[in-house]
Amino acid sequence: MAEPSFYIGVIGNVISVLVFLSPVETFWKIVKRKSTEEYKSLPYICTLLGSSLWTYYGIVTPGEYLVSTVNGFGSLVEIIYVSLFLFYAPRHLKLNTIVVVALLNVFFPIAAIAATRSAFKDEKMRSQSMGFICAGLNIIMYGSPLSAMKTVVTTKSVKYMPFWLSFFLFLNGAIWAVYASLQHDVFLLVPNGVGFVFGTIQLILYGIYRNAKPAGLSNGSSEIAEDEEEGLTSRAPLLS
Length: 240
Fold this sequence. Notes:
By secondary structure, the protein is mostly helical. The chain has 10 helices and no strands.
């Protein structure tokens, strides 16, 4: 009979897949309009970076194949997103985007994998060093939900923090935190524990401000809010 962690991991895979697919509507709009307009590429580039490194972590860590499967799927999805963005981006943004993709999605993963493989001969040490890198990157990426929460409090509006995406990201963090606890995997537990806490705070803020009268948005804060709405998919470790 399979261990409880397997069933928890399968549930986590399903939830993570739903979150990975959440920007499909955005990219359908981009394809229809044949332009990226004001959408930002960085959230998808960062999510691709995290997913690719977590895929490698799942491969080199015994018993973590559920981590590699969902993040392998996520990497493929994010490659499609980034490719569509490159194809439809305005000419003045395309070169800059290509440079960022080359640095974060090609050079950095190759350098990280090569460094861990050359620095450590022991597979366990390689796994732990990659887990440290992945967890660190995910924690850094939590700057996005902090900004989103600040926008909600400032504007007294949840317009740029969709409930269902917040809920699924909260659920994603909770499920993977439980999975990490059962697997005794601190590298999965720490970022997902942080994600669970932030998700809980977001849902509380949603409950407080969902019927509140929105404060006036300046042009600058409106642009920031739009950026944050498009960056929601990268604000939690997926999977992890």
